């Protein structure tokens, strides 16, 4: 009972914040709302008993990526943008497309409702860190190593890309 | 002797070829060849004739060779000698021989002398072929050949437009008659299934032929006879045919070609007998011809024209004789007439040769200058008038007797009147030409008797003109040759009565002519002026020429109209029209091809180009659009997978 | 716990992310929408793993990897955005049309 209420609250929070991200005019507000949404998703993870992922989510997404977004928004945004139209001309088509995909996904869920049954003895409060650690260091070690490479490469790329341009190289739109 | 009869035809035919091709190098330009061949033919024919009239000949004689066959019918080529054939052979060869000899003098110095003799031979050959023919088909072929030769000979001096015209007129007028002949021939073939004369005779005597159709066929055959033998209304060519040389007139228009029609009637008389209506028609036509021609003979000034009308008139007599008395009566008159008419023509030729004119008003008093011609001419006139005991008397009287004995009073009256007229106009000619004072002194001075080549035939012909009639009449002479005679004793009239009547009429005619032209007791000038209208009507040959020319003109107009019709309607309208229609259709087809078909093809191109353009619009460069397409596509695929 | 609810939430978040990715003009907002889509997928993975296949921890491992990749991608993307902003002086998507065909 309690879990359901908490789930409803967290789920609703996540959805509302997501809506806010895509709908608000001010990009700063959007970035902040994104942070809140990601936190709510982390909360959902916690509710599910995925303790490690909850921690990872908060640590990576909320405190790193959302803050990163915020910094970029502050660096690249301008006050004049607030008066500009947030949506482009295919907004209606986008709504239709998203509606379509939503319907399809919900339909899929509806069709397979019988198969989506939770196991009876699901112990949500078993710690998962050990299993995850075991998995990524033995079975999926290759994946982890590659992930490390990916992170390295992205770091290098980001550094290179933001090296900065001299005023001479700027091109006016 | 009868086996040699085919040679009678072949010899002149050969002489024609020889004269035509080799005459240049022969003596007398080939005339000798002609004379020799005819002489041989004459000797044989005379032998046949005289043995026939004395009863020593077995007739009929048939000799045939198969020629060609069509269908199941076999055509033959051959000779069928009956009584009328023998008669004709004698007449033809005699007159032809005399004309050949006469022409040596008359045509002397003519530039186309050789051609003249060639045609004479061809004519004689075709006439002989006609009388000898065993099938109506060969008879018709020789008939046409005779017509062709008459065209050549009448238009012999074709530099004169009148002669050329006369030749054409003769050919075309007789061709009209021949059209009837041909149709009748074909009709006869369809009724009887044969052309052969002996076979036709058998069928006729067997009584199996249909009366009506045979009558029609005979009338059509008579059309041909009307053309050749110058009956009304197809006689118009004969007066004009006098443009030819006089010996030609003697041969063709006295003795031979014009008698072909009479001969035809005699030949197939067994067919004419079947339908009595046919004989009535023949008699009527003959009587009308006799009278009309005699009337027309009263007025011409050309001596040969008078003789021409006289020939037409006597041909009418022959037809009446055939119809009412049978072949015996008709052929008898034919034979005697041939003798004295040929003599009259040759005599006229002699006169023309002497005074160089045909006009009797320019002659006069020639009896002193040309005694032989004068005597023979007078004999001819008397024979023609039918004065006893000359030959014309016997033959004419037989016809008159047959007319009245068969109850044909109108015909008898017409013929008697004609006899009087005949005597009158012939005497007129004789008186004006030989008696009285010469009217043209210049011509009279130069006149002289003709050379022996011309006077000998006259003398030779005078003999039968005087004696032949009596000879053939006494006993059963002619009857042995041609036994066929119709027996109609409606009125029992004695022959003596008929003889007296005709004799009186003839003498009256002669006397009146003498009074008018000789002694000048009746003023003919005042008569001419009083009856001027009638005179002009007779001079214009009763308008028959005008009628025929009108018909020719009408036919010409019709032909012109049909030609225009053919050109405008058929050629331009239908043929060209369908051509234009085809062009129109092809233009429509082309439009269709250009507009519709090509555009149909182009459409696809435009469709794809447009589609391509449309698709190009979607390549906008906007990544968000690409993302949109991806999302839509994925959702559609998923929907498809999930729901179907 | 009903997995249906979690998957439903995941679906809704995904749809919202799709909308934002296509409809927004600001490229940073687009990147944020993409992050939303990532998170929706993660919820899905973890929910199914924790509620239906408890024996294994594959779902969480994949989710972890997803988080890592998303982070790397966000870093690179934002670096690009900054570079483009310095060059073109704009963050609006319709102006990035050099690839237009």
Describe it.
The complex is a heterotrimer of chains A (173), B (644) and C (101). Chain A is mostly helical. Chain A has a domain at 1-79: Up-down Bundle (Four Helix Bundle (Hemerythrin (Met), subunit A)). Chain A is 71% helix and 0% strand. In chain A, 28% of the residues are buried. With 644 residues, chain B is an all-alpha fold. Chain B is built from 26 helices and 2 strands. A two-stranded antiparallel ribbon of chain B has the order 1-2. In chain B, α4 packs antiparallel against α5 (136-154), α15 (327-355) runs antiparallel to α16 and α17 crosses α20 (452-473). The model of chain B has no long low-confidence stretch (mean pLDDT 85). Chain C is mostly helical and 101 residues long. Chain C has a single domain (3-91), classed as Helix Hairpins (Orthogonal Bundle), CATH 1.10.287.3510. Chain C has helices at residues 3-23, 27-52, 58-88. The longest helix of chain C is centred in the last third of the chain and has 31 residues, at 58-88. Chains in contact: A-B, A-C, B-C. Chains A and C meet through α1, α2, α3, α4 and α5 of A and α1, α2 and α3 of C.
Query: What is the gyration radius of chain C calculated from CA atoms?
Result: 17 Å
Please report the number of helical segments of chain C.
3
User: Mean of the pLDDT scores of chain C?
Assistant: 90
What ranges of chain B have pLDDT less than 50 throughout 5 or more consecutive residues?
A: none
Number of helices, counting only DSSP H or I runs of 4 residues or more of chain B: 26
Structure summary, number of beta strands of chain C: 0
What shape does the CA trace of chain C take? elongated
Instruction: Using the alpha-carbon principal axes, give the shape of chain B.
Output: elongated
What is the makeup of the main sheet of chain C?
Answer: none
What structural class do the secondary elements of chain C suggest?
A: mainly alpha
Order of secondary-structure elements of chain C: HHH
Which fold name is given in CATH as the topology of chain C?
A: Helix Hairpins
CATH architecture of chain C: Orthogonal Bundle
Distance between the termini of chain B: 124 Å
Strand percentage of chain C? under 5%
Average pLDDT rating of chain B: 85
User: How many strands in all of chain B?
Assistant: 2
């Amino acid at each position: 009972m309690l879990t359901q209420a908490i789930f409803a609250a967290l789920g609703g929070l996540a959805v509302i914040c997501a809506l806010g991200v895509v709908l608000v005019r001010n990009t700063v507000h959007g970035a902040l709302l994104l942070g809140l949404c990601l936190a709510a998703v982390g909360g959902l993870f916690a509710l599910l008993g995925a303790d490690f992922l909850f921690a990872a989510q908060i640590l990576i997404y909320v405190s790193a990526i959302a803050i990163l977004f915020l910094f970029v928004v502050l660096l690249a945004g301008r006050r004049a943008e607030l008066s500009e139209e947030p949506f482009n001309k295919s907004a209606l088509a986008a709504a239709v497309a998203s509606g379509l995909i939503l319907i399809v996904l919900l339909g899929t869920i509806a069709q397979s409702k019988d198969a989506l049954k939770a196991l009876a003895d699901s112990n949500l409060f078993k710690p998962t860190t050990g299993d995850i650690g075991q998995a990524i260091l033995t079975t999926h070690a290759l994946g982890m190593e590659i992930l490390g490479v990916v992170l390295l490469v992205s770091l290098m790329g980001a550094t290179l890309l933001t090296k900065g341009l001299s005023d001479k190289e700027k091109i006016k739109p | 002797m009868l086996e040699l009869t085919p040679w009678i035809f072949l010899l002149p035919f050969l002489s024609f070829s020889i004269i035509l091709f080799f005459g240049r190098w022969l003596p007398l330009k080939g005339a000798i060849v002609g004379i020799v061949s005819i002489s041989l033919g004459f000797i044989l024919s005379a032998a046949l004739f005289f043995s026939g009239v004395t009863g020593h000949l077995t007739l009929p004689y048939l000799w045939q060779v198969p020629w060609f066959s069509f269908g199941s019918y076999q055509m033959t080529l051959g000779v069928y000698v009956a009584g009328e054939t023998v008669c004709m052979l004698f007449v033809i060869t005699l007159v032809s021989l005399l004309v050949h000899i006469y022409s040596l003098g008359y045509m002397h110095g003519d530039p186309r002398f050789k051609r003249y003799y060639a045609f004479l031979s061809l004519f004689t050959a075709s006439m002989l072929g006609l009388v000898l023919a065993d099938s109506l088909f060969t008879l018709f072929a020789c008939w046409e050949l005779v017509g062709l030769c008459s065209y050549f000979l009448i238009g012999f001096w074709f530099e004169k437009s009148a002669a050329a015209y006369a030749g054409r007129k003769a050919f075309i007028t007789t061709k009209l008659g021949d059209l009837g002949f041909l149709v009748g021939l074909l009709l006869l073939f369809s009724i009887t299934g044969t052309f052969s004369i002996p076979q036709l005779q058998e069928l006729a005597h067997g009584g199996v032929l249909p009366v009506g159709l045979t009558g029609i066929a005979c009338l059509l055959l008579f059309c041909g006879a009307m053309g050749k033998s110058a009956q009304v209304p197809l006689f118009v060519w004969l007066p004009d045919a006098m443009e030819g040389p006089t010996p030609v007139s003697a041969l063709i228009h006295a003795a031979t070609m014009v008698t072909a029609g009479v001969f035809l009637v005699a030949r197939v008389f067994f067919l004419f007998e079947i339908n009595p209506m046919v004989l009535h028609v023949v008699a009527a036509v003959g009587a009308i011809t006799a009278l009309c021609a005699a009337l027309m003979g009263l007025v011409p000034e050309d001596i040969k024209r008078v003789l021409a009308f006289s020939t037409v008139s006597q041909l009418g007599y022959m037809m009446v004789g055939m119809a009412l008395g049978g072949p015996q009566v008709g052929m008898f008159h034919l034979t005697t007439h041939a003798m004295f008419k040929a003599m009259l023509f040759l005599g006229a030729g002699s006169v023309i040769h002497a005074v160089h004119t045909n006009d009797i008003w320019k002659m006069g008093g020639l009896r002193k200058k040309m005694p032989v011609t004068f005597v023979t001419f007078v004999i001819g006139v008397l024979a023609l008038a039918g004065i006893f005991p000359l030959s014309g008397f016997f033959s004419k009287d037989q016809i008159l007797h047959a007319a009245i004995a068969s109850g044909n009073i109108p015909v008898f009256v017409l013929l008697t009147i004609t006899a009087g007229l005949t005597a009158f106009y012939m005497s007129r000619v004789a008186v004006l030409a030989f008696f009285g004072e010469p009217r043209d002194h210049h011509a009279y001075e130069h006149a002289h008797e003709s050379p022996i080549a011309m006077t000998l035939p006259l003398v030779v012909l005078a003999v039968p003109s005087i004696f032949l009639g009596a000879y053939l009449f006494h006993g059963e002479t002619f009857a042995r040759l041609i036994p066929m005679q119709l027996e109609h004793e409606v009125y029992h009239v004695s022959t003596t009565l008929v003889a007296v009547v005709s004799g009186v009429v003839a003498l009256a005619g002669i006397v009146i002519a003498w009074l008018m032209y000789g002694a000048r007791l009746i003023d003919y000038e005042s008569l001419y002026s009083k009856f001027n209208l009638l005179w002009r009507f007779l001079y214009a040959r009763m308008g028959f020429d005008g009628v025929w020319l009108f018909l020719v003109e009408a036919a010409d107009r019709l032909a012109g109209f049909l030609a225009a019709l053919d050109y405008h309607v058929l050629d331009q309208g239908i043929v060209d029209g369908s051509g234009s229609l085809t062009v129109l259709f092809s233009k429509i087809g082309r439009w269709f091809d250009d507009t519709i078909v090509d555009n149909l093809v182009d459409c696809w191109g435009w469709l794809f180009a447009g589609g391509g353009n449309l698709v190009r619009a979607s390549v906008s460069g906007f990544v968000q659009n690409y993302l949109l397409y991806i999302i839509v596509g994925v959702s559609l695929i998923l929907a498809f997978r999930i729901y179907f | 716990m009903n997995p249906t609810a979690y998957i439903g939430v995941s679906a809704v978040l995904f749809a919202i992310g799709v909308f934002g990715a296509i409809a927004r003009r600001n490229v940073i907002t687009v990147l944020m929408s993409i992050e939303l889509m990532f998170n929706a997928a993660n919820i899905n993975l973890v929910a199914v793993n924790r509620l239906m296949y408890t024996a294994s921890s594959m779902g969480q491992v994949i989710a972890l990897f997803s988080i890592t990749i998303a982070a790397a991608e966000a870093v690179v993307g934002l670096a690009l955005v900054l570079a483009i902003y310095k060059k073109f002086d704009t963050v609006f998507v319709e102006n990035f049309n050099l690839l237009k065909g």
